[in-house]
């Protein structure tokens, strides 16, 4: 299975809002960074960071506009992430970078407009 397909399946786990499924795609010592926010390392810290996103959302949609895989197996995604809350939809334009080893995500970095996200969450 290609790394791009693994990332697509990872996205499907997000859309299913299953934290356990999301973590199953990640190495136990994976690094997760929303650039501009603190980094989370390992399943416990990643779970703590992701749970508020999933817990507050009735629906999660990630629309992938472009996906590419480098010769080294790094997967790049340009996407729009929508989190449908009880009273609003938070929509983020995101550039994501996924590094994989042995079929697991070992590093995940998302680049997006943090102040824009914070305004939408206020």
Report what the structure shows.
The structure is a single chain. By secondary structure, the protein is an alpha+beta fold. It is built from four helices and six strands, in the order ααββαββββα. It has a single domain (3-121), classed as Nuclear Transport Factor 2, Chain: A (Roll), CATH 3.10.450.50. The chain has helices spanning 3-15, 19-24, 42-55, 114-121; strands at residues 26-34, 40-41, 59-69, 75-84, 89-101, 104-111. The protein has a six-stranded mixed beta sheet, with helices on both faces. A hairpin with a 5-residue loop joins β1 (26-34) and β2. It is globular, with a radius of gyration of 14 Å. The chain starts with a helix and ends with a helix. The model has no long low-confidence stretch (mean pLDDT 93).
Tell me, what's the shape? Answer: globular
Corresponding CATH architecture? Roll
Strands, count: 6
Question: Which runs of at least 5 residues are low in confidence (pLDDT < 50)?
Answer: none
Helix content: 25-40%
The largest sheet, given as strand count, sense and whether it forms a barrel, is: 6 strands, mixed
Q: Alpha-carbon distance between the termini? A: 40 Å
Radius of gyration: 14 Å
Instruction: Give the overall average pLDDT.
Output: 93
CATH class: Alpha Beta
Summed up, the domain count is 1
CATH topology descriptor: Nuclear Transport Factor 2, Chain: A
Order of helices and strands: HHEEHEEEEH
Q: Can you count the helices? A: 4
């Amino acid at each position: 299975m290609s790394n791009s397909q693994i990332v697509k399946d990872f996205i499907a786990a997000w859309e299913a809002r299953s934290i356990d499924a999301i973590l199953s795609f990640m190495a136990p010592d994976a690094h997760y960074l929303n650039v501009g926010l603190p980094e989370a390392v390992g399943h416990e810290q990643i779970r703590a960071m992701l749970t508020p996103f999933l817990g507050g959302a009735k629906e999660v949609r990630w629309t992938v506009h472009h996906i590419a895989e480098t010769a080294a197996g790094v997967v790049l995604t340009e996407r729009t992430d929508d989190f449908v809350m009880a009273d609003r939809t938070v929509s983020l334009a995101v550039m994501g970078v996924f590094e994989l080893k042995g079929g697991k995500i070992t590093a995940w970095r998302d680049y997006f407009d943090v102040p824009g996200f914070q305004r939408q969450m206020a």
